[in-house]
Amino acid sequence: MRVRRFEKTDAEEVSALIVTTLRTTNIKDYSAEYIENDVNALQPNNILERAGWVHFYVVCDDEKIVGCGAIGPYWGKENESSLFTIFVLPEYQGKGIGRTIIETLEQDEYFLRAKRVEIPASITGTPFYRKMGYDYKNGITTPDEEGLLRLEKHR
Asked: What is the mean pLDDT of residues 24-31?
């Protein structure tokens, strides 16, 4: 497995990875309608737009992209950052790729400069992020109006 920065030519493959993961793994915790709203919001053009303001990484098995993740400023703040778009293909889950993504993001300059890092986490991803040391923001353990849990890590 090799981690590298996202390239513009990766947008189609990254979008397909996300769609597959949402429809296979996240569907266990969300309605089909919710998943399809996310699918529509994470098309290649959306991925390219996001890659313009975050540091986006991909994990490759040979030439195949099997995972992705990004980190960027939290609402433009210098001392707070957010993790975004963390997905691993279903057949690669449980093999340490998610951990590799988090470890990569936690070595990025956006993480290193931050006093606090937030993750807008899916219900599906929350147990994993908790294992990685992120905890519920303000102790809130139920999903918000977006169906997400806000997790954070203070440094």
From this structure: 96
Both tokens of residue 37? 């709203």
Chain segment 83-122, per-residue pLDDT in tens: 999 999 999 999 999 999 999 999 999 999 999 999 999 9
Neighbouring CB atoms inside 10 A of 116's CB total 15
Burial degree of 101 (CB within 10 A; 0-12, 13-18, 19+)? buried
Q: 10 Å Cβ neighbour count for 85?
A: 21
According to DSSP, the residues that pair with 152 across neighbouring strands are 118, 135
Q: Beta-carbon neighbour count of residue 147 at 10 Å?
A: 15
Q: How far apart are CA 61 and CA 58, in angstroms?
A: 10
User: Quick check: 101 and 119 in contact, CB under 8 A?
Assistant: no
Distance CA 80, CA 15 (A): 26
The answer to whether 149 and 136 have CB atoms below 8 angstroms apart is yes
The count of other CB atoms within 10 Å of the CB of residue 100 is 18
